[in-house]
Amino acid sequence: MDSDLSVYYCALSRVFAYKCAAGRHLLETFGGPAAVFAARREELAAALRHGDDFIDQLLAPALLEWARRECEWARSAGVRMLGIGQPGYPRRLADCGDAPLLLYVRGAADMDATHVLAVVGTRKATWTGRDQCRRIVENLAELEEKPLIVSGLALGIDGCAHEAALAAGLPTVGVLPCGPEAVYPRQHQALADRMLERGALVTDFARGIAPEAYTFLRRNRIIAGLADAVLLVESYRKGGGLITASLAASYNREVYAVPGRPTDASFEGCNRLIAAQEAVLVPDEEALGLALGWRVLRRASRRPSLLRPDDPPLRRELLLILAERSPATMEELAAWTGLPARDISVELLDLELAGRVVADGTKFCVSL
C-alpha cells in the first residue's frame, strides 16, 4: 500500500476500530482515506450524524502523528498493512459488513486462495477431538486445489489445526487477538514462527493491544470472514468456536461440525448445532471435502480395518469396546469384560506397541 494511504487507513482504523461500518461509510462517501482527512468538519458532520466524538478524533493532529509512527514500525518490522478496498485485502473478508478497515499481516499466505477453511474448537481438546482434527486436515491435503487453513492460534483445536496443516504441507493463517508485535498464547511462539514460512499471522489490532475477552470476540469475526466455510471440530455447550460458527452463518458461510457421543460434554456444542440443523454433520475425515464440492486429486487412503483375522478373542473384544466407548480406563475395561486387569494390561500394551491403541493419560483409545 502507498505509504501515505497506509497512514490514513491506520488512523481511520484507530478511530473506527469498533465501528468499522461507520468508517467504511466515510470511505465510500468521500472516495478514499486521504479525502476523509481532507474533509471539513461540516462535511464530516453531514456524513456522520451524531458522530461528534469521531469527528473530534479525526481532526486531532495527534492522530496522524500516531499513525505515521505505527506505519514506520510496520515497515521496519516487515509487517504489511492492508487497507480495505486495496490490493491484497482478502476479498471474502471485504464482503462482510463489519470487516476491519485495516489488517496487519506477517507472512505471505494468499488469503484469496481458491479454497479457505476455518477450523475452530475448544481449548480443552480431547484426544478424540485432536485426532479428528488431524485426520480431516490431512484428508484436505488430497484436494486438487490445496486449501488454506485458518484458525485462531489458540491452545487445543486451533493449534492442532495449524500443526496438522503444516504437517500436511498446507498453508495456514493464524488470526491474533492482540497487536501484531506479539504472539498469543506465548506457548505457540515456535508454532507461529513455523507458520510464517508458508502462512501468515493476521490481526486488526494496533501495537500494544493486549488479549482481553473482547479482543477474542472480535478476532473470531475475521476467522469466519476469511473462509468459505467453518468447521467446528469439538466444542462444549459454550465457547468461542460456537461464536465463530454463528458469525460464519451470519456471513452466509457454510458451517460444519464433527459429532460426538451424547455423553461427551466436549462435543455438546457440535451436537446441538447439528441437531438444530445449524451445521452439517461431518461423519468422517473424507466427508468435508466432498460436502464442499472440492475436487479430490487422488483418493485418500482408507483407514485400516479395526480387527484382523489373527486377533485372539480378548483383543477383538477390547478393540470393539474401545471403538464404541473410547476413551476408557483399564479399570473400566476390566469391569465391562469381567476379566482380570493384568490380562487386559498385557493386551493393551501389545496393541499400543503395534500402534492400534493410543494411551491418553490413564485412558485408552483406538487409533482410528
What does this molecule look like?
With 368 residues, this protein is of the alpha/beta class. It has helices at 3-15, 20-30, 33-38, 41-47, 52-59, 61-77, 91-94, 127-140, 157-167, 189-198, 213-226, 240-250, 268-275, 287-292, 313-325, 330-337, 341-353; strands at 80-83, 102-107, 116-120, 148-151, 172-175, 200-203, 229-232, 254-257, 280-281, 328-329, 357-360, 363-366. 47% of the residues lie in helices and 13% in strands. The strands form two sheets. Strands 1-2-6-5-4-3-7-8-9 form a nine-stranded mixed β-sheet, with helices on both faces.
Helix content: 40-55%
Unreliable residue stretches: 298-303
Summarize model confidence as the mean pLDDT: 90
- Structure summary, number of beta strands: 12
Principal-axis shape: elongated
Q: Structural class given helices, strands, pairing?
A: alpha/beta
CATH architecture of the largest domain: 3-Layer(aba) Sandwich
Radius of gyration: 24 Å
How far do the termini sit from each other?
A: 48 Å
Total DSSP helices:
17
**Number of domain units:** 3
Strand content: 5-15%
Kindly provide the name of the CATH class of the largest domain: Alpha Beta
Which quaternary structure do these chains form?
Answer: single chain
- The ordered string of helix (H) and strand (E) elements is HHHHHHEHEEHEHEHEHEHEHEHHEHHEE
Largest sheet: 9 strands, mixed
Strand order of the largest sheet: 1-2-6-5-4-3-7-8-9
Q: What name does CATH use for the topology of the largest domain?
A: Rossmann fold
